[in-house]
Structure formats: C-alpha cells, structure tokens
Design goal:
binds NADP nicotinamide-adenine-dinucleotide phosphate; alpha/beta; five-stranded mixed beta sheet; 2 domains; single chain; elongated; six-stranded parallel beta sheet; Rossmann fold; about 25% strand
Amino acid sequence: MTKIIINGAKGRMGRALLACAANRPEIEVAGAIDQGDDLAAILPRAEVVIEFSFHTVTPGVAALCAQQRKALVIGTTGHSAGEKEEIHAAAGRIPVVMASNFSTGINALFWLTRKAVEILGPDFDLEVVEMHHRLKKDAPSGTATTLLEILSAVRQVQLRDALRHGRAGIVGERTRNEIGVHAIRGGDVVGDHTVIFAANGERVELTHRASSRDTFAHGALRAAQWVIRQPPGLYDMQDVLGLK
Ligand SMILES: NC(=O)c1ccc[n+]([C@@H]2O[C@H](COP(=O)([O-])OP(=O)(O)OC[C@H]3O[C@@H](n4cnc5c(N)ncnc54)[C@H](OP(=O)(O)O)[C@@H]3O)[C@@H](O)[C@H]2O)c1
C-alpha cells in the first residue's frame, strides 16, 4: 500500500488522479489538498506527495518534503531556472521524480525523437508544434520543452540560441541551426505534440495525441509507487519505465 498526498487536488489533473487512485487498491489517498490547505500538517500521514498545481508552488512543496523526508512526484510544468534549482536542492535529500509528461506514449515519443534526429542528420529542419486546451497557463508546454531539449542535445546546439518561438514579420530565411516551436491553444484539447523533420523532398512527422488525462494520472501513480523505493536523487519517467 502506497500512501499518497495529492497537491492541486481540485484541478484537472488532481481530479483525474483521485479518480484513478480510487480504482487502485494498492494506493491509499492519505490527503487531497489544494490552494489554502496546510500541507505541512498532513505530511506525516503519507510516504509521497504528488504535486500538480502551479510552478511557483513546487519549490515550497519540495522543501517541506525534504524537511520531513517524504518522496515527491512533480507533474507541474513551467518552472523558472531558480525554481528548478530549488527542486534540485531538495532532490539531494529525498527521491524526486519530475516529468513534463507521465504518459507511456509520450515517453516512447521522446525515445523515437532522439533516434529520428540521430538517423536523419543535419539536413533536416526541426520544428515542434503543440496544442492544448484554452485554460493552460504556460507555453510552450513542458512536454514541448523536453522535446526541444532532446533535439538540441543531439544537434549539439545551445537551446536558448537555437529556439524560435513562432515567427512573425520579416524574419528572413530559416537558418540551419534554428529549432522552431509553436504553441496552439483552444477548446478542450488534452495535449497534442508533433515533431517535424523537414528536408528537401521529404518530411517525417512524429505525433502523439492524448485524449484523456488518465494516461498522465496512471503514470504519476506508477512513479509514486516507484520513487518511495529509491535513494535521494532527481529522476524522470524514463527512469521509472526502465528506458535508460
Ligand atoms: N506532467 C504531466 O504529465 C502533466 C500533465 C498535465 C498537466 N501537467 C501540468 O500540471 C499542472 C496542473 O495542471 P492542471 O491542468 O491540473 O491545472 P489546474 O486545473 O489549474 O489545477 C491546478 C490546481 O492547483 C491549485 N493550486 C494553486 N495554487 C496552489 C497551492 N499553493 N497549493 C495547492 N494547490 C494550489 C489550483 O487552484 P486554483 O485554481 O484556485 O488556482 C488548481 O486547483 C500544470 O503545470 C500542467 O502543465 C502536467
């Protein structure tokens, strides 16, 4: 039995986590909290916190978990460099899984993207397109950012130099090293991601479409069961799935 606390329980992901956990007898929801609730007070009840709220909230949650030696699963996206540093500091004391996307399909897409960019080589232009529901607060999505990090790492370019967020005006011809990213917002789309590899005469596109948040929720619950058995450190979903 894994005892979990869900932070951000009233949100879209929080509700999906509660529904999925209810169908899994090996998981006990020891707490479901949201804005205004006191995590420190109920933390002793659980072994692991699953955090899906807002980027400014995560460092405080991580510090509390580190203080009380509880494991942490972070699904929240959009963290600043400073917030990431605070999460890394906490991961020196407790095991933390942080993943921009907990779905198995997306983690397969991460793997395929790395393979494709290696195979296709430098002649292919790289672009990432993502679409999410109109209520999403950060852009581009954390998943798109992970895809961009994979592409830039294989190409051995600095992402901050290569990145082009959409294009507007007289931007000139596309340069060889740039990597484009385009964030579309509308309706109730759970999450679509496409990586485009375009060369003269041919184009490869890898697409993943999520149609239910349950896929993220099941992955996050699986990560929670896994992380409580790990030594302190920062892990991702590829570690949980044994893909490394
Ligand atoms: N890694 C993945 O697989 C994955 C998948 C989907 C989403 N996400 C990410 O997960 C995050 C949440 O997404 P969502 O769609 O569930 O958002 P959401 O519907 O806005 O839910 C977030 C919830 O957290 C609450 N919250 C805000 N501040 C809080 C605080 N200080 N303490 C506790 N709860 C607080 C919000 O309350 P208020 O509404 O009152 O502010 C809301 O109920 C986003 O960063 C999103 O990008 C990740």
